[in-house]
Design brief:
By secondary structure, this protein is of the alpha/beta class. It is built from 20 helices and 18 strands.
């Protein structure tokens, strides 16, 4: 039985401010209320929100060390030094590598190589193996993307090997900063850059932008790289505000109009070449396919195997750096994704069965579960899946290279990082943020970690946090959902953290037409719902993973629904559809 959700209606905007915004912009009061709720309370702010401009991007030289980074890249280009572009194995890292690599190639620098560490043999971040590879190949400069902010010893090691580092990262630094030629990270305490929520690929792009700015290269020449950046922004779940909103807006335009050849191959595999690609499409279709390559263990007996799965995402599979059409290569990445889905479904079921079989684990306020046989690359996905069922802070652990390693995920309102930090004396290393983290420990410490982590959650979590909630922007009548309303609502895109797709509530609706269970296991509920008012309005809806109230609805009983308004693409036609977030039956009081 699913956990019942709390519905929380957000505070509504000041009525006078809403009325003024509606009059100034010509949009409905419901949508004007959305603007005011989001802090967009003047016409000037609304214009910037609805019409993002590349000219509003911040000066990249406001970032600490940017001048040093550009000077070092200029010297490497001028002296024809070999440059290694190094990045993490996830979507943010691989797109960052592709973006910087393509730019350096574009300006005519030919002595290039790139490196993606193997998740299983090297782990996250800068590795000694990667540095040794750079030195062996004659590279004298490594540009590290989406990693490196804590690589103090590795940067010193590279220096002894005659290899300089430029670090482009967006993770929270420790007190000590690596002694690299330049460390670009807007989260540095001594960095006054106006926006600190860039993705790792975004920091790499700012380096590219700065190089162009100093060397008189028009911005239009690097605008084609924004499709990669949009994929990074969406997949890394960074706030879609400020620069990220501008960059994502123009990146989506590029992704839809003329995507790079490598991304186009993935777009076609996803079946997205026939309709407008959104942030959701990246998050749920494009991103997971790129990510899957870095999650899968490569076949060590395959002579043609790439050095790592992440390497395959850049080169062998999606060929994100390719200049030519690669229609068949996208299927390699899709194959990784299909394999990943089979494995994570199997492991999720195994974990679910284990929890259900242990009453004390099922009743706890947190989950720590360990199985040395599980694949390291999918434990983060499994943790997220378990939260969907049990809705509580979750840590999933496995064995890798003699250590127990894993991923942790949290629920809104609980600081997972602090919980893990309270156990730091038991850990070899850990990192992350409030809602997601990774950690490594010795096998003999798993039991004590489990005890202390669970105790910390028990003592510190607010019980209300353990009940999922749906935040509702405002009430809406079905009859309000006109073509003009939908057109204006689309102007709020791209949606994401900081600018979420609005959730509306409509009360007292009933089935009118088709109501049936769909999906391989009849796990989804598709309904035509009608609101009884004048004029009567019927609309198509889909409730994923919500079969519970099927009989009640089919019998014609009334319900309240909260939902997002989306476009449904089917066989070349586009229709409005409500994506139901939750359903509450209206039962008569006895």
């Amino acid at each position: 039985m699913p956990i019942e959700k709390r519905w929380v209606v957000k505070p509504q905007g000041n009525p006078e401010a809403v009325a003024a915004m509606a009059a100034a912009t010509g949009i409905s009061s419901v949508l004007a209320n959305l603007l005011v709720q989001r802090g967009i309370d003047t016409l000037e702010k609304a214009k910037k929100f609805f019409n993002p401009q590349l000219s509003d991007l911040h000066d990249p030289f406001l970032m600490k060390d940017m001048d040093k980074a550009v000077e070092r890249v200029e010297r490497a280009v001028r002296n024809r030094e070999k440059i290694m572009v190094y990045g993490d194995y996830d979507v943010d890292g691989t797109t960052a590598v592709a973006l910087v690599y393509k730019f350096l190639r574009q300006i005519g620098h030919k002595d290039l190589l790139f490196y993606i560490p193997d998740r299983y043999t090297e782990g996250y971040g800068i590795s000694t193996k990667g540095i040794d590879h750079a030195a062996r190949k004659g590279a004298t400069l490594i540009i590290a993307l989406d990693c490196g902010i804590k690589a103090i010893e590795k940067v010193d090691y590279a220096k002894r090997k005659g290899v300089d580092f430029i670090i482009c990262d967006h993770h929270l630094p420790a007190e000590e900063i690596p002694r690299a030629v330049a460390v670009l990270d807007p989260k540095r305490a001594d960095c006054s850059y106006p926006f600190d929520e860039l993705s790792g690929c975004g920091v790499g792009f700012k380096l590219v932008q700065a190089y162009c700015q100093k060397n008189g290269i028009p911005f239009q020449q690097i605008e084609p790289l924004l499709d990669l950046l949009a994929v990074s922004i969406a997949s890394d779940i960074v706030p879609l505000v400020d620069e990220n909103r501008i960059l994502a807006h123009y990146g989506l335009l590029r992704l839809n109009a003329s995507p790079s050849k490598g991304l186009l191959s993935i777009i076609k595999i996803c079946g997205l070449d026939r309709h407008n690609i959104t942030i959701d499409d990246i998050v749920f279709k494009i991103g997971p396919r790129i990510n899957a390559a870095g999650r899968m263990r490569m076949d060590e007996n395959d002579e043609n195997a790439a050095p790592s799965g992440g390497y395959a995402a850049v080169e062998r599979g999606g060929k994100l750096i390719s200049k030519t059409n690669v229609p068949k290569e996208g299927s390699v990445i899709d194959g990784f994704n299909q394999d990943r889905k089979c494995i994570d479904r199997s492991v999720t079921q195994e974990a679910h069965d284990f929890i259900e079989a242990h009453a004390e684990l099922k009743a706890a306020k947190s989950t720590v579960i360990y199985n040395p046989r599980w694949m390291k690359g999918i434990v983060g996905i499994v943790a997220s899946r378990l939260i969907e069922t049990y809705y509580r802070p979750t840590v999933v652990l496995t064995m890798s290279n003699g250590f127990v390693t894993g991923s942790a995920r949290s629920v809104p309102g609980f600081d997972l990082y602090q919980a893990i930090e309270s156990c730091s004396d038991l850990l070899e290393n850990f990192g992350g943020h409030m809602y997601a983290a990774g950690l490594t420990m010795r096998p003999e410490r798993v039991e004590e970690f489990t005890r202390r982590f669970n105790a910390y959650v028990e003592e510190n979590i607010d019980p209300i946090t353990l009940q999922p909630q749906v935040e509702i922007d405002s009430e809406l009548f079905f009859s309000n959902i006109t073509p003009a309303f939908r057109r204006d609502l689309n102007r709020f895109q791209p949606f994401g953290p900081g600018n979420p797709a609005p959730v509306f509530v409509t009360r007292g609706v009933v089935s009118h037409g088709e109501t049936k269970l769909v999906g391989a296991d009849c796990e989804h509920l598709r309904m035509d719902l009608m609101q009884r008012q004048k004029p009567n309005t019927t609309i198509q809806t889909i409730a994923f993973q919500q079969p519970t109230h099927y009989e009640w609805i089919r019998a014609g009983h009334p319900i309240d629904v909260c939902y997002q308004i989306v476009e449904n693409h089917y066989r070349g036609s586009v229709s409005v559809q409500l994506r139901i977030k939750d359903i509450k039956p209206l039962r008569s009081k006895q």
